[in-house]
Amino acid sequence: MINIIWITTQFPSSKTDTKGSFIYRTVRELAKHYPITVFCLYSIVPPIIPMMKDIKNAAKIIKVWRIKFPKHPQAPEDLNARVVYVKYFRLPRGIFQYLEGWFGYWAIKKYLSGVAKENTLVHATWLFPEGDLANIIHKKFKIPFLVTLMGSDVHYINKNTRKWRKAKSIIQNASMITSVSQALYESLEKKGILVPFEKRIITHTIYEFENFIIKDRNQIKSLLGLEKDTKIIFYAGTLRKIKNIDVLIEAFSLLIKTESNTILLIAGTGEEEGKLKSQILKNNLFNSVKLLGGLNSKEIINYYNAANIFCIPSQNEGTPNVVIESLLCGTAVVASKVGETPYLIVDGKNGYLVEPGSVSSLKVKLLEALSNQWDRNELRKSILHLSPQNVLKEYKKVYDSFFN
Q1: Could you list the mean pLDDT of each consecutive 10-residue stretch along the chain, which spans 404 residues?
Q2: 161 with 38: CB under 8 angstroms?
């Protein structure tokens, strides 16, 4: 029997915690077939710089810092796997980020002797710090490891930097580098890091096919207090610069001149929220563009169903969960031609692709998508190849290759 050590910095720690829920779903299904121990690491960063800037409130800053790690973390009740929540201290990123794998190793070292045994492999999500930590475990315990590329771990690597050299070392030592997107391998190649073809395989996350379902659009609109005749464009995700939400708002400001009975709903939180509010006011869009804040899983399913079109205009992506979730709810997608998205969206079949950052082409494709009479059941069928059963086959192929 193959034993799995799964390393991640994102995993739910309570009934209301949704952090890393996509990893949890994958582990939940895999744990039905393999013994799995999950190490969820919480980095606790001493607030040195904030304290230096605000000496008078240093005690308050320390108090807030101390409660970042959940006091009584609890693994999801339906998970047949052992979950170890570990707090590890690290210094502010910069030159110290290259020691983060070691900080994680020192935090979990005492647990490893009981799980790093024969027929064991380490599975790390993201290159940093998880892949770095897995590489250290590999060297110390002589057990194989694999790393799954998720997107951000690749996008923020700059060529010929210390991080770049560490990434090359991790990939060289790993037995397998899986990815949620073929495009991530290509991105690494452009940065001068080649993942050998024999080490490559695509592994998706498990999606909640049973929860993301098609509902009556008019009933959901009524439930959400939205007019039945109003056309809705919906975005959900973090409010970060890389997501190009400002481009979406700009395209919408042009679109609404001809499609006045349309609104744009934006769900999520992030550092760009203030700038987006200013952009909405500047363009006099406060009656037609609404920032919804964060949504729970039930709420977001309702908004997917209420929307006529889902839009994700990002500059970079891996495999965006929101694209798959929207299609499962029978809502067509207009998305940037980045990451795995071109492998998911076929123009005219389940949505449209646009070049990232192009306001004019985004406006044109949104208008085209709004005018199309989409068959919602066909939209859902377009993504059925990513069913839990098929994704499990991807992982089984990877895991079984280690000890055969």
Answers
A1: 93 82 91 95 77 79 68 87 89 71 92 88 94 95 94 85 92 95 90 94 90 96 95 95 96 95 94 94 94 91 98 90 96 94 94 96 97 96 93 92 81
A2: no
Domain that holds residue 16: 3-206+387-400
Q: Could you tell me which residues come within 8 angstroms of residue 64 by beta carbon, excluding any fewer than 6 positions away?
A: 47
- Same domain as 225, residue 182: no
Q: How far apart are CA 115 and CA 11, in angstroms?
A: 19
Query: Domain total for the chain?
Result: 2
Residues 54 and 185 placed together within one structural domain of the fold: yes
pLDDT per position as a tens digit, 29-76: 999 999 999 999 988 777 777 777 788 887 877 776 666 667 788 888
Cα-based distances in Å from 346 to 33, 332, 341, 382, 401: 34, 10, 9, 9, 32
- Claim to verify: residue 265 and residue 173 sit in the same structural domain: no
SS3 (DSSP) at 59 = helix
Same domain? For 107 and 26 the reply is yes
CATH code of residue 59: 3.40.50.2000
Question: Could you tell me where the DSSP H helices lie in 14-96?
Answer: 21-30, 48-53, 58-66
Is-contact 321 381, C-beta < 8 A? no
Residues 143, 19 within the same domain: yes
| CB within 8 Å of 126: residues ≥ 6 apart | 8, 9, 147, 148, 149, 150, 152, 153
Rounded-to-integer distance, Cα 31 and Cα 37, Å: 9
